[in-house]
């Protein structure tokens, strides 16, 4: 009886319809949950950094929409972040979005500057409430994890010569090996900073970047699917994607401590 049903064209057609419907429902469900993710993240940020009225000292809330006040607040927030990082006596990074620059600093002194050649920013950071985003940026971002195409600390392996006659000094640098420089910095507050090399001096660099980016996206997609299977909204991560010269990208990545800090001026 089971064999007859399987060979029945109507049964196979019904089975295809059922499977197709289930796939469509799953895709629609996953899409809706992904759409809700940035909405939930924005709600969390608004709750955490929204203006809290003081019952004793009442302030006219209209000031928080004044352009002059918001400009000063942005500058104050950026300075607060820089001061907090300078107190750590460690090297850190500042990203100036209006000026399209990235600086390496130590104790408030800029030691290296690079120009951002291309940049894209999450709408939450780019177009969010001025007061709330400035309040969020008043504290530096701390690196929680990083994913990179290059090692944090380069390792050179050499075979010791048997005697002085076999010793060959490093006069000419070895340029045979080429390292594409692309990395992702995952911050403790959920923000992601993507740094990609701007130029592609070797034919395989574009494909290498594509594979690196797709691997990271796939990993996040798998995590999102796992959450939706348990009826949870996937995590959304506000992002800043930048392209800078390859040499500068390498300098910044290797100069930053493993759990270094970054300040952003929007």
Task: Describe what you observe in this structure.
Helices cover 43% and strands 20% of the residues. It has 266 residues and is an alpha+beta fold. The chain has a single domain, classed as L,D-transpeptidase catalytic domain-like (Beta Barrel). A nine-stranded mixed β-sheet has the order 3-2-1-9-5-6-7-8-4. Helix 3 (67-86) runs parallel beside helix 5 (130-136).
In short:
With 266 residues, the chain is an alpha+beta fold. The chain is 43% helix and 20% strand.
Features:
single chain, about 270 residues, alpha+beta, L,D-transpeptidase catalytic domain-like, nine-stranded mixed sheet, about 45% helix, about 20% strand
What topology does this entry show?
Blueprint: H1 2-7, H2 9-49, H3 67-86, E1 91-96, E2 101-106, E3 109-115, E4 118-121, H4 123-127, H5 130-136, E5 141-148, E6 182-187, E7 192-197, H6 205-229, E8 239-244, H7 246-255, E9 261-265
Helix pairs in contact: 3-5
Question: The CATH topology is what?
Answer: L,D-transpeptidase catalytic domain-like
Question: Any idea what the CATH architecture is?
Answer: Beta Barrel
Shape: flat
How much of the polypeptide forms β-strand, as a percent range?
Answer: 15-25%
Number of domains: 1
Give helix % range: 40-55%
Main sheet attributes: strand count, strand direction, barrel closure: 9 strands, mixed
Helices, by number, come to: 7
């Amino acid at each position: 009886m089971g064999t007859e049903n399987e060979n029945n064209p109507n049964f196979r057609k019904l089975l295809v319809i059922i499977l197709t419907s289930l796939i469509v429902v799953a895709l629609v469900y996953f899409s809706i949950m992904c759409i809700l993710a940035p909405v939930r993240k924005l709600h969390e940020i608004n709750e955490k950094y929204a203006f809290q009225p003081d019952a004793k000292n009442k302030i006219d809330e209209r000031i928080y929409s004044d352009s002059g006040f918001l400009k000063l607040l942005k500058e104050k927030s950026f300075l607060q972040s820089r001061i907090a990082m300078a107190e750590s006596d460690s090297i850190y990074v500042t990203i100036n979005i209006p000026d399209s620059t990235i600086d390496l600093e130590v104790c408030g002194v800029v030691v290296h500057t690079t120009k951002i050649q291309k940049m894209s920013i999450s709408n939450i950071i780019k177009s969010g409430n001025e007061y709330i985003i400035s309040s969020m940026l008043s504290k530096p971002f701390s690196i929680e994890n990083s994913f990179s195409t290059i090692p944090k600390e380069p390792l050179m392996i050499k075979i010791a010569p048997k005697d002085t006659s076999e010793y060959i000094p490093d006069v000419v640098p070895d340029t045979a090996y080429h390292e594409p420089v692309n990395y992702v910095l995952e911050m403790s507050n959920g923000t992601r900073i993507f740094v990609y090399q701007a130029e592609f001096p070797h034919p395989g660099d574009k494909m290498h970047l594509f594979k690196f980016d797709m691997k990271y996206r796939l990993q996040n997609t798998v995590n999102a699917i796992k959450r939706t299977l348990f009826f949870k909204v996937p995590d959304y991560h506000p992002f800043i994607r930048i392209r800078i010269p390859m040499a500068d990208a390498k300098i910044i990545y290797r100069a930053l401590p493993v759990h270094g800090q970054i300040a952003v001026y929007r």
